[in-house]
Amino acid sequence: MEHNERIISEEVCSLSAVRKVASMLDLAPSDFKKGDLLPRGWHFFLLSGNVPRSEIRSDGFPGFGVPIPNLGLPRLVLGGRTVEFLGDIRIGETLERTSFVASIAEKESQAGRMAFVKIQHELRNQQSELLLNEVQTFILLEASQGKPVLPTGTPISQKAQAKKSLTPDELQLFQYSALGFNSHKIHLDRTYTQAVEGYPNLLVNGGLASLYVTEFLRTQCGLQLVGFQAKHSAPLFCDDELTLLANPVDAQNWEVKICNAHHALAVSIEARVNG
């Protein structure tokens, strides 16, 4: 199968799934009803891969939703994502999802061989209107040769027009992973994460970090997203406090930073909003 073949599937934005997302975010599930608009950023469960258990990678990652060639790189992390909200998804509606490999680029670095894999997902309604376009960038790496070098980073200014601190815990990592059918062991299996990958604790899902931001902008800042671009520069760990810092660039653009427990930059997000 060609790695750029388009995979088309039918996905349902079910009320049950939406209410489970609300529960995970500590919101009242009953506030969300069939026919309501899905909050922008909650679509992650519609993009999960459907991979048979026998085909799951050794690290537990359930796949990209599309086939890619075996590159001989056993470790995987999320490098970033770009999301465009071109319309609204209604709770209860049936959608057509098109997924494909946008590009694969291999390179050599001081850390060894790596590959950057871009996976593109498109969601359309029954009228064939494109509602959402998302490109996820994954980084594939060679096997860990001991503990990875994890610099704490240089603390950055914590001044912001809007600010929020929170602490992801093991329960929320499990709930988010379950809703997105993501069985990657770095989010669920502490023994694997420490002994095989060499990290000190479970890693916060990259998608969960993005959801923190989209919810922060929606609820605390009162903004409607048009799209965003996220870049992950350092891992975030379970049970470590993280801080969201949001500042407007202009009427239609905001810059959001997620800082780790050492107040160093871990994720940077450029968000476009309705002015």
UniProtKB/TrEMBL annotation:
Pfam families: FAS1_DH_region
SUPFAM superfamilies registered for this protein in UniProt: Thioesterase/thiol ester dehydrase-isomerase
Origin superkingdom: Bacteria
InterPro entries hit by this protein: FAS1-like_DH_region, HotDog_dom_sf, Mitochondrial_HTD2
All copies of domain FAS1-like dehydratase, residue ranges: 70-130
Record protein name field: MaoC family dehydratase N-terminal domain-containing protein
Source organism: Aquirufa novilacunae
